[in-house]
Design a protein that fits this description.
homodimer, oxidoreductase activity (chains A, B), TIM Barrel, flavoprotein (chains A, B), eight-stranded parallel β-barrel
Chain lengths: ~375, ~375
């Protein structure tokens, strides 16, 4: 399981693993892939700096990357309090009422739930500044091309930039903007995703930009067979997210996540939903009583980015603390149907590699 | 490009091509695949009989199959006139108004547009009766398992039965009912389709029933790369529909279809929509002004099967006769984005085969 991307990024297998957990990211890198740490959870860039110090000490010199959330166009900006004033009362009362109806415990006095500021442009920029002081090998942007000066800044540090694309025309635009690696994110993927499924999207993006940049396949990949399918479709590697959520290492970073992991293990491939309720843009989440509440006839329409996340982030914290699998709010792809237990990262990587080899041997017999 | 399915069906390549055109079906079979003739357009079984006589004379002894539309549970039955009485006035007037607003010509006096009776259980049964008098090698059912006595009847004639499945649990049920081949129909497919994309669905179905029956991959397949991906995911072959609509042979059966073919050539992978307006069950269609009209806030909700088709079939005929690409009503998958011209069937098959071989050579270099 080796492509030109391996040389380019200095990795053994063309497996790029996105995760908000530094323990998972380090384990992916040590297992021969490229761990990519999601930065959106760091409201304070100095906290990210500290975690990247930990990465530098715990990846044994193996390459790793970071993922920021940065729209090319600078959206509404401001402090959470400023932004909070833009949120209609109808939305606030819907969230309060829903949490009450779902039986979510009320936070104790003095417990405060911060908004997730990583969705703000200024905070994402501070993530880039900090990350470039570390020996990162990739900056990925979950919202397409970052602004031109951010791409230039990364390139000055010799760091390639990856951008997610849900349509071939987006991929063409990214490459025109100087993006070095395109992540083709299919409909079945977790998180922000478009309407075109990987089977169709991936060769379209490869045909559009594959002669200029490597294309990674994202969406629906959780086994060596699926990595082989992605490479057959023209990808230079796989970008995976959902599978790493159900790992032992994830619990090391987020010890309160056993309910979320139980929800992942229980979910079938039918138990996800593509909705705007997480960030304001369509993203695939685990289907739970929380997502169902937003589909009720009396539910308000989700707000635009970044307001929707400012609205729901404190609710997500409370849902998380309820420690109840049916109340989880978590981005996840249709591949969750394949998650049947919590495992160490290295076991997943080993299975991807052996499954890939078995698939190629099986295909040999069709000649 | 050879799997165990080739022996089983007596074909050269594991390409099964669904088409309502006998000219296309015969060309697929002659090119080394298995042409499967869709029967739903035959209101009168004697017409099907005549067309299958033509197939027998024009396939050079190569195997072919038929596709019927038969729910396991017998739905509302009756003559079109009976069924017409069950259709609310609101729906009838919406269709009339929409056709008028879209500028669709009013049919001349004496021109009659029949409902498509193939959706009726009794008519589908008559298709099976007639087809079994011909040397068919497959009966496929677009709506899952046919009733048990139909499966038995096919087996008495030595004809295997294939059934479409959009979830692993459906596939398990089909095999329990005696179905011999499962067609795993992904979200991206044209026609009736579920919500799980091929990349995820196919290995799930293979894991569930692949040790008992061959699984065909349907949805998103239009190139040798995609056939290779499907086989990597565990399929024994590919089931394809959309690509054959843009063939020269299709025009031989349906000479009035140039507007439809123009619409297919113009469409991108974003130009389809999954909707209940065609049959009452979710099916993916080309996105046109007709499908958009049904998404307007004032549009009524589609009726259940078979009433919705009784309602819209005459409208579809009128849309077809308008010969205007933006007014086409046609099931098609996301793979339409790959259709860039009208070609002979043999050219498509040859490209699938050569693309498949190239893909396997490319994958060899990853070892």
């Amino acid at each position: 399981m080796r492509t030109a991307l391996c040389e380019r990024l200095g990795i053994e297998y063309p497996i790029v693993g996105f995760t908000p957990s530094e323990h998972v990211a380090a384990a992916i890198s040590k297992a021969g892939g490229l761990g990519v740490l999601g930065c959106v959870r760091f409201n304070d860039a100095t906290e990210l700096d500290r975690v990247l110090d930990w990465m530098d000490d715990n990846t044994g010199g193996k390459p790793y990357g970071v993922d920021v959330v940065m729209p090319a166009k600078i959206p509404t900006e401001g402090t959470p309090d400023d932004l909070g004033k833009l949120i209609p009362e109808e939305h606030k009362s819907f969230v309060d009422r829903t949490l009450r109806e779902l039986g979510v415990p009320v936070p104790g006095e003095g417990e405060r739930h911060d908004a997730v500021l990583g969705w703000l442009h200024s905070v994402a920029r501070s993530h880039v500044e900090v990350a470039l002081k570390h020996p990162i090998k990739l900056i990925a942007n979950a919202l397409g091309s970052p602004p031109p000066d951010v791409i230039e800044q990364a390139h000055r540090h010799g760091v390639p930039v990856a951008a997610l694309a849900g349509k071939a025309e987006h991929a063409v635009r990214h490459v025109g903007n100087g993006v070095d690696i395109v992540v083709a994110q299919g409909y079945e993927a977790g998180g922000h995703t478009g309407e075109i499924a990987s089977m169709v999207l991936l060769p379209e993006i490869v045909d559009a930009v594959g002669d200029q940049v490597p294309v990674l396949a994202a969406g629906g990949i959780g086994s060596g067979r699926q990595v082989a399918a992605a490479l057959a479709l023209g990808a230079s590697g796989a970008w995976m997210g959902s599978l790493w959520l159900a790992t032992e290492e994830y619990l090391q970073t987020m010890p309160g996540s056993t309910a979320m992991q139980t929800a992942l293990v229980n979910a079938t491939s039918s138990d996800t939903v593509r909705t705007r309720i997480y960030t304001g843009k369509p993203a695939r989440l685990l289907k739970t009583r929380w997502t169902e509440a937003w589909e009720a006839p009396d539910a308000p329409k989700p707000l635009p980015m970044p307001l929707q996340n400012v609205l729901v982030a404190p609710a997500h914290d409370r849902l998380h603390e309820a420690k109840e699998p049916s109340l989880v709010s978590m981005p996840a792809g249709q591949i969750v149907g394949r998650i049947d237990r919590v495992r160490p990262v290295a076991e997943i990587v080993a299975e991807l590699v052996s499954g890939y080899e078995e698939t190629l041997s099986r295909l040999d017999k069709t000649r």
